[in-house]
Amino acid sequence: MPLVVTDLRMPRLDGMELLRQLLGKSAPPKVIVITAHGSERQAVEAMKAGAYDYLRKPFDNDELLAVVHRAI
Q1: 10-20: per-residue pLDDT in tens?
Q2: Of 13, 14, 5, 12, which is closest to residue 54 (Cα–Cα)?
Q3: DSSP string for 4-32
Q4: Residue 37 contacts by C-beta under 8 Å, 6 or more apart in sequence?
């Protein structure tokens, strides 16, 4: 199963827009969204849009690995 880890804030493409584009594919990957600028509203929005999980920076590497292992 493909997996994408993406940030919400990127120079050319908003992470929420990337999430929507990825999930619109015929075989969408699981998407983990990370951000340093997160809020509860953004977390809920990402999860409702179909994100597998949402992590706030700074995050512990073991936490990210655990989420990746659950996703795959």
Answers
A1: 889 888 999 99
A2: 5
A3: EEEES--SSS-HHHHHHHHHTSSSPPEEE
A4: 8, 9
Average confidence score pLDDT of the chain: 91
Sign of CA dihedral 24, 30, 35, 39: positive
CB-CB contact of 54 with 43 (8 Å): yes
Cα–Cα distance for residue pair 39/58, rounded to 1 Å? 14
Percent of the chain with pLDDT over 90: 65
pTM of the model: 0.88
Q: How many CB atoms lie within 10 A of CB 12?
A: 4
Bridge partners (DSSP) listed for residue 30: 3
CA dihedral 13, 38, 23, 14 (to 10 degrees): -10
